[in-house]
Amino acid sequence: MTRSQLLASLLATAALAASTAHAAGNKEEGRLKTYTCHGCHGVPGYTNAYPNYHVPRIGGQSYEYLVAALTAYKTGERAHPTMQAQGESLSKQDIEDIAAYLAGLAQ
């Protein structure tokens, strides 16, 4: 492989990686869109008064898991009244942005 072919291959790979990163969501947009999430998920040890259950920490979860969970709440495949109400208002891009931001946080 010549140097020019190698360079062309590397540039194509970089372009593909950049387009894939964009498809995975925008972390900064996700940071702005998670303001309602922090009310429950951002408080260490938070539980609800009724019924009494643990609210999971979502920071640091995998991107794929977060996208799947939010999409399932949006479509009603996953049942939780509060999360379904949150999910219904999210677009596919919102879900990807939120997942990108949360996945980048330390647990």
From TrEMBL:
PANTHER family: CBB3-TYPE CYTOCHROME C OXIDASE SUBUNIT FIXP, CYTOCHROME C4. It holds the Pfam family Cytochrom_C. Keywords: Electron transport, Heme, Iron, Metal-binding, Signal, Transport. The keyword Acetylation does not apply. Gene3D superfamilies: Cytochrome c-like domain (1.10.760.10). Residues 1-23 form the signal peptide. This is C-type cytochrome. The keyword Membrane does not apply. Residues 25-106 form the Cytochrome c domain.
